[in-house]
């Protein structure tokens, strides 16, 4: 208990005792940046829903492949179906995000999620009952209405926090992305192999719908809808064009690295044991994202230069044939991806027109997904014709291309795209 010190004053011959005040106590320990984030009312609730709904994003693809290949006996068909879903997402996702910006998250995200869930359930039924092949494509294409839960969560942080706190929030969101894409495929593979082929898809739909309902139930933290003014404003595509090229190249880094690593580790005879080695890259990115949120943000140019250097490490390690060296190189390469994504997403926020933030974030994610598709296909060809060690040159080259894309601007564009929130570009 802090001791109280009485205050005394003398007026004439009268001694006056004033109300006592507590003596100064030891100052409380300062809270860390993440503790300050979640001290805000409602943030823990919508984050819990966000993580539940985000986990299936790493589950649906591999679940669909294992379910279709297991029931129909064709990996080619499974790959074609998932590729169709990716293409549909590239078209539908920005429109869904635009509706979210215009009408509000809860009003659009819940029905859009229901449509996506029905598409997944329809896919399960069609695969299970031996329905015509075209029904598989149609069902999986319907899942393209899935809202960009990561973009909506970032929009909430932007609405709630002052500008100087955005860096920490974006770092947390990137770490959450990496964690979900790390755990999602593992959980999906476990369910599909240990239970039944449809278990991964069914579990993903339950998590997606439950998480979205929890997320949208926290209305106090939801940004106000922009209304018709969001449609009348300028399109985010024009403002984000240089960054979209950067995100496309970054997606090529991710897609080519994954395919090349799977092929290389299989060539080393690891088989199922390659999973933990592959997970090192995502684990490194998750840890780096959390750490980066506690540090002063760096320029996008510096982050991309670090990525270009880090992506050369797996290439050099693969040439030696040493598994421990490759594992360490993948871990270090992963630590370089989170700062790039955090800083680039901060630029998306800074350059996106008012009232179009979800659309801008979704355009960035769409560019990344397109890059992943290109990188995966290109890496597959390189592995077949050049070998796995040489194929590791692809992610390194794509990282250099991403750095080069930063300097490609329209002559009329006077907005610097190399500054992060709260940081000056040291040139």
Describe the structure.
The structure is a single chain. This protein is mainly α and 427 residues long. Helix content is 72%, strand content 4%. The chain has 17 helices and two strands. A two-stranded antiparallel ribbon has the order 1-2. β1 and β2 form a beta hairpin. α4 runs parallel beside α6, α7 packs antiparallel against α8 and α13 packs antiparallel against α14. The radius of gyration is 25 Å and the shape is globular. Mean pLDDT is 80; it is low at 10-21, 23-28 and 410-427.
Task: Give a quick rundown of the structure.
Helix content is 72%, strand content 4%. It has 427 residues and is mainly alpha-helical. The longest helix has 32 residues.
Q: Outline the biggest β-sheet.
A: 2 strands, antiparallel
- Give the DSSP E fraction (strand runs of 2 or more residues): under 5%
Fraction in helix: over 70%
Total of helices: 17
Q: From the alpha-carbon coordinates, what is the Rg to the nearest angstrom?
A: 25 Å
The largest beta-sheet arranges its strands as 1-2
Poorly predicted runs: 10-21, 23-28, 410-427
How far apart are the first and last residues' alpha carbons, in Å? 54 Å
Average of per-residue pLDDT values: 80
Structural class: mainly alpha
Shape: globular
DSSP E strands, number: 2
What is the H/E order? EEHHHHHHHHHHHHHHHHH
């Amino acid at each position: 208990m802090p001791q109280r010190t009485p205050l005394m004053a003398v007026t004439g011959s009268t001694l006056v005792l004033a109300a006592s005040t507590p003596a100064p106590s030891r100052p409380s320990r300062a809270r860390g940046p993440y503790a300050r984030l979640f001290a805000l009312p409602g943030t823990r609730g919508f984050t819990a829903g966000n993580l539940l709904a985000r986990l299936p994003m790493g589950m649906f693809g591999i679940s669909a492949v294992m379910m279709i290949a297991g029931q129909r006996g064709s990996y080619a068909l499974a790959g074609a179906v998932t590729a169709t879903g990716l293409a549909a997402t590239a078209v539908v996702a920005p429109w869904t995000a635009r509706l979210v910006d215009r009408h509000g998250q809860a009003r659009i995200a819940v029905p859009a999620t229901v449509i996506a869930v029905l598409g997944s359930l329809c896919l399960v039924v069609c695969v299970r009952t031996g329905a015509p092949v075209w029904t598989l494509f149609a069902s999986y294409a319907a899942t393209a209405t899935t809202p960009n839960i990561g973009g909506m969560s970032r929009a909430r942080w932007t609405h709630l926090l002052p500008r100087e706190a955005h860096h920490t929030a974006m770092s947390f969101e990137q770490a959450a992305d990496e964690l979900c894409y790390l755990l999602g495929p593992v959980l999906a593979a476990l369910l599909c192999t240990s239970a039944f082929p449809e278990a991964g898809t069914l579990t993903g739909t339950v998590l997606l719908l439950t998480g979205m309902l929890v997320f949208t139930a926290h209305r106090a933290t939801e940004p106000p809808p922009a209304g018709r003014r969001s449609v009348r404003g300028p399109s985010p595509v024009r403002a984000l064009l240089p960054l979209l090229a950067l995100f496309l190249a970054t997606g090529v880094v991710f897609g080519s690295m994954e395919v090349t690593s799977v092929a290389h580790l299989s060539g080393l005879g690891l088989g199922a044991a390659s999973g933990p080695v592959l997970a090192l890259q995502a684990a490194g990115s998750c840890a780096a994202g959390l750490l980066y949120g506690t540090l002063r943000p760096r320029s996008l140019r510096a982050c991309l230069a670090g990525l270009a250097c880090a992506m050369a490490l797996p290439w050099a390690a693969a040439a030696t044939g040493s598994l421990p060296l490759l594992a360490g190189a993948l871990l270090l390469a992963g630590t370089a991806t989170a700062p790039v994504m955090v800083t680039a997403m901060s630029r998306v926020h800074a350059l996106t027109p008012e009232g179009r933030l979800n659309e801008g974030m979704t355009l960035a994610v769409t560019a990344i997904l397109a890059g992943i598709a290109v990188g995966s296909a290109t890496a597959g060809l390189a592995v077949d014709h050049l070998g796995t060690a040489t194929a590791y040159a692809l992610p390194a080259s794509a990282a250099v291309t991403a750095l080069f894309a930063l300097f490609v601007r329209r002559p009329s564009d006077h907005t610097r795209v190399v500054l992060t929130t709260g940081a000056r570009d040291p040139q």
